[in-house]
Amino acid sequence: MPKPRLILVLGDQLSPGLSALRAADPARDLVVMAEGMGEGTSVPHHPQKIALILSAMRHFAKDLQAAGWRVAYSRLDDPANGQTLVAEILRRASEVGAGALLCTHPGEWRVLADLQALPLDVSVLPDDRFLCSHAEFAAWAEGRKELRMEWFYREMRRRTGLLMQGDTPAGGQWNFDAENRKRAERGLLRPQPLRFAPDAVTDEVLALVEARFAHFGTARPFGWPVTRVQALEALADFAAHRLPSFGAEQDAMLEGEPWLSHSLLSAALNIGLLGPLEVCRAVEDAWRAGKVPLNAAEGFIRQIIGWREYVRGIWALKGPEYLGANALGHSRALPAAYWDGETRMACLGAAVAQTRDLAYAHHIQRLMVTGNFALLAGVDPAAVHEWYLSVYIDAFEWVEAPNTLGMSQWADGGVVGSKPYVSSGAYIDRMSDHCRGCGYKVAEKTGEAACPFNLLYWQFLDRHRARFVRNPRMAQMYRTWDRMDAGHRARVLADAAMLLTRLDRGEAV
Ligand SMILES: Cc1cc2nc3c(=O)[nH]c(=O)nc-3n(C[C@H](O)[C@H](O)[C@H](O)COP(=O)(O)OP(=O)(O)OC[C@H]3O[C@@H](n4cnc5c(N)ncnc54)[C@H](O)[C@@H]3O)c2cc1C
Known about the structure:
Blueprint: E1 6-8, H1 19-22, E2 30-34, H2 37-40, H3 47-66, E3 70-74, H4 85-96, E4 100-104, H5 109-116, E5 121-125, H6 134-141, H7 149-160, E6 164-165, E7 168-169, H8 200-212, H9 228-241, H10 246-249, H11 266-270, H12 276-288, H13 294-318, H14 337-340, H15 346-358, H16 363-377, H17 381-391, H18 397-408, H19 425-431, H20 452-463, H21 465-468, H22 475-483, H23 486-504
Parallel strand pairs: 1-2, 1-4, 2-3, 4-5
Antiparallel strand pairs: 6-7
Helix pairs in contact: 3-8, 7-13, 9-12, 12-13, 13-18, 15-16, 16-20, 17-18, 20-23
């Protein structure tokens, strides 16, 4: 019998069809799964995120064992646990005399470097749970001046056949955003997402996490799916009850309504409990059955085969250097409000509070509230990146970094977005009901009561004038600014400077 090989399964690789498992031999090889303080504290991950990963890993290990695999599983509270991935791999290798390790490409550059440095014969297999491989994305990107998501998305529609009628997109259009981006109505009785009461495994893990990780965020109430069966139920529930209004409510924000019509499926997708194609097929089926409008199905499928695959392609194409991107030279510390929620700004306060309590905020909260504010305030993108990687249930570097550094902070100098996603308070007022109960006044442009987004928006444009004034998508904003009375502009800049000074002093704004 040849020597056993180690088959590494990471906490976000919980898919029975994982490439490393497909390449392994259950009769010969040993699956290695390891919980560790090292991974749990590489950034201060939200307690719900740690609990989700540990619980889902424990369930997955049991399923593997039931399917006939030998699994060496290192629990966090096992005294023999070396507490880092590398230590545990080396311990298992020496226990069984293994000289080789098979793994699926990890979603973090740091982990890849650690694995490649192991004193073992390491084979890294492609992660083919995605619809577009690194090589296919590189071929698509080759020779293009701009890597715009929309063109990539159309190719993915053609390639998957999703929402296609022959060669043409269903409904004659690729994109129905004109029908989306609506304000959400207050007071509607929205179907709440399916949440899952913790079972014994999750309960045990929650107690462990509460005892060991004093990180931002509350571990309970915990309702995330931790098994594939639960994740499939969550998908079916979303498709039946919230998908019909997903398109219309996609960009809306409402005080006290954290979920609106969102799917909450990102974490299940990112740890491998669901596959992107099966999720999109379920959504397409609902549309073909006449149960959901095309704008909802298209808007949802675009997020998965478009944005999700696209950001992963960017992460792979740009490599580890991307993590240090800072095209705008921003260096301010992350405001304390991102951790303690202390602010008079209703929108920011709501986003941070629900992030703390639920490990969740939807895309527009991440992009146009917390992201927008950090960008306008000139926060160091590395600090913003660390915050987003820490606080969300679905945060994994391959998806978080391009969204944060690229889409949200424009730190990559325009690889992901042709212009920065910045807005004044008017956008937040249009898309939400936060401004009604805010400590600032969205209609005020200067002075003590002026919405900080109003002040910082113009200050951002002013300080980055040389870079953006010739951007055709921003020219109109500069014309508007230039037409304002010189005295008014000076007041805006002075008030913005005062606000930034208060942030620098660590004062709540
Ligand atoms: C600054 C910033 C950081 C982000 N960090 C993450 C992250 O760490 N992990 C993550 O999965 N998403 C991230 N996103 C994208 C998006 O906000 C989340 O995928 C979404 O909010 C998850 O909630 P949901 O499952 O209810 O999504 P829905 O609104 O229901 O969308 C459906 C699915 O589409 C996918 N999706 C939607 N938008 C994106 C996107 N921009 N990039 C990739 N996939 C997308 C997700 O898989 C999501 O589950 C980030 C966005 C921003 C602006």
